[in-house]
Specification:
single chain; alpha/beta; 5-stranded parallel β-sheet; 48% helix
């Protein structure tokens, strides 16, 4: 987990210097300003987890700064500093979205405790929001299409849904492997039990093992309490391992043992635990080729590959394009003939996910109810995917930088809309802007 970033705004320079020194020693990343006017550009430029504002500031006061901050970064947790004579103003700050207030004079330990509570509150809110989103996604999914290959796969999925056998789902990125995994669960007798998913390529090896199997207190640095793993959380239901081809070889051994016996150990624990789960795995790689290269264990591959579902790329089922477009477009929005023709002639390296993002982009950029071809920005996508252009020879990092830069420019640097178009969180977008040192022209 990265350091929490704090913005301090107070016109008492000596107090600010002391706070910056103390909080940096505590491991926070800290920026500061001596007035609200200097703080606003910082809030536009950087993502902050926390902020400390003095209510009495020259010109724009702390309440006005709080209101402006919440317009730019609604998730930020703000603590207000107030004198004894301005308690009513502090209460007004709470009504305007401040997390807490502290009266001056205060001791640093009191402020640090308030910061810790603000972090806990923010973390809990993010978890709750994430859980709500996950639950909504899990119970409201659709697999759109009438293509014969797709219908055959759906029939197979329905036939094997109640079985306990492992299922391996292969397909390019964006084809909908997670949707088929959900179908295998929610169309089965396990539908009332947990559906637990983890991306095997998103975490370092030790963290991935801890997420899967859990750990006991003291097992490693930072293990401050016992933690239940996802295999336990999925007991009685379905464990979905996405991007399995990214899993380290050393962890593949432990996964094989778990699949064969249902038994596992938390990191740092001696005793065996046992659960019963149905395992579904997915990968955008060809695992048989990875086995031949020595990147994936052959015995694990055969253990997982009892039933294999291979999802066709969108370019192989373009007859489903009109149905998918209709599904993704919001009410009142339509494509003009040229836009539809442009989509029909596009190769879709990112498959259905890319189509979704292209249409979201078109809906945001279109000025009326008709989405034109230019609103989809397909020309840039075509160039970046052409082997005959310089863009194809660029690094992935450079391509990402240029794409983010273009989307921000098209949306007049509206970071919220840009994050929606790019399919990332606003926080992640702020980090990318800092990483690539992007600035509005």
């Amino acid at each position: 987990m990265g350091k929490n970033r704090i913005l301090i705004v107070d016109d008492e320079k000596d107090l600010v210097d002391l706070l910056v020194f103390r909080l940096r020693r505590k491991g926070y990343e800290v920026d500061f300003a001596l007035n609200a006017e200097d703080a606003v550009p910082l809030i536009h430029e950087h993502y902050y987890d926390l902020a400390i504002y003095d209510i009495r500031l020259p010109k724009m006061n702390g309440i006005a700064l709080l209101k402006e901050t919440k317009k730019i970064q609604s998730e930020i947790q703000v603590i207000m500093l107030t004198g004894h004579g301005t308690i009513e103003t502090a209460i007004e700050a709470i009504r305007q979205g401040a997390f807490d207030y502290i009266t001056k004079p205060y001791n640093l330990s009191e402020l640090e405790m308030a910061l810790e509570k603000a972090i806990e509150n923010k973390t809990l809110k993010e978890k709750n929001d994430s859980m709500k989103k996950i639950i909504k996604q899990q119970h409201s999914f659709q697999i759109i299409g009438q293509n014969s290959k797709l219908r055959s796969l759906l029939e197979l999925t329905e036939r094997i849904a109640d079985s306990d056998v492992p299922v391996l789902i292969e397909g390019e990125s964006g084809t909908g492997k997670d949707l088929f995994a959900k179908a295998l669960h929610y169309w089965s007798i396990r539908r009332e039990e947990p559906f637990v998913a983890i991306n095997s390529g998103a975490l370092p090896e030790q963290l991935l093992e801890s997420e899967l199997f859990g750990h006991v207190k003291g097992a490693f640095t930072g293990a401050n309490q016992d933690k239940k793993g996802l295999v336990e959380a999925a007991n009685g239901g379905t464990l979905f391992l996405d991007e399995l081809g990214e899993m380290p070889l050393s962890l593949q051994v432990k996964l094989l043992r778990f699949l064969e016996s249902g038994e596992f150990r938390r990191i740092g624990e001696v005793r065996e635990r046992k659960v019963k789960v149905r395992t579904i795995t997915a990968t955008n790689r060809h695992l048989d080729e990875e086995v031949a290269k020595g990147n994936f264990r052959e015995d694990l591959y055969y253990r997982l590959n009892v039933v294999k579902i291979t999802i066709p790329p969108l370019r192989d089922r373009m007859d489903d394009l009109p149905l998918l477009v209709k599904h993704f477009l919001k009410a009142g929005k339509t494509l003009d003939a040229k836009a539809l023709k442009a989509l029909q002639s596009y190769d879709f390296p990112g498959n259905v996910r890319e189509l979704h993002h292209l249409l979201e982009r078109g809906m945001l950029l279109s000025t009326g109810n008709i989405i034109e071809a230019s609103d989809l920005l397909l020309q840039a996508a075509d160039k970046s995917n052409s082997k005959e252009t310089h863009a194809a020879l660029c690094s992935l990092e450079q391509l990402e930088k240029e794409h983010i830069k273009k989307v921000l420019a098209e949306l007049n640097w509206n970071k919220t809309k840009a994050a929606e178009v790019l399919g990332v969180s606003v926080r992640n977008l702020y980090r990318k802007i800092e990483q690539y040192q992007l600035k509005a022209m």
